[in-house]
Amino acid sequence: MERIIFFLVAFRATLAVEYIVTTVTSSEYSNSGTDDILYCTILGTEGKTAEYRMSNPGNDREVGQTDTYNITDNTEIGEFRCVSIRVTGTDGWAFAEISVEVDGTPSLALYKGFGWLDDDPVEVREIAFCITDFIDKTDNRCPKSHPFSYLLNNWCCSDDQERTLF
Length: 166
Known about the structure:
mainly beta, 5-stranded antiparallel sheet
């Protein structure tokens, strides 16, 4: 009797993950909104996604407006930890809230308050909003690639001068 042997090739399929990034533009000032271009990157315990342009049809990021950005990425990042937002342009953007939903599971609001991003040389151009357990609490540092980070009510920056920007 002839034996037929089937070999199964083991592989790890990477499934696409759906991220919904929600931002709320501040209503504190009449110039809180922006027409600048914003980009975001999702960071996890094992990696990060590509950088995605945050843009919806129409006029997003207006004063007091809530905007959602749908991102689909198949990069294996492990457990979600941060969203990094970068601005290009000189219009600036004042934000009041940032949150991320991962495959239908909402995170806590990663930021609530008042923050500012601007591509001016003396301002902050990129900031990462992280859940608290992403930092090494022994020396209270941010992810190396994102020195300006907001961690659930605590800024962790490279020095106290940067902390006063917000």
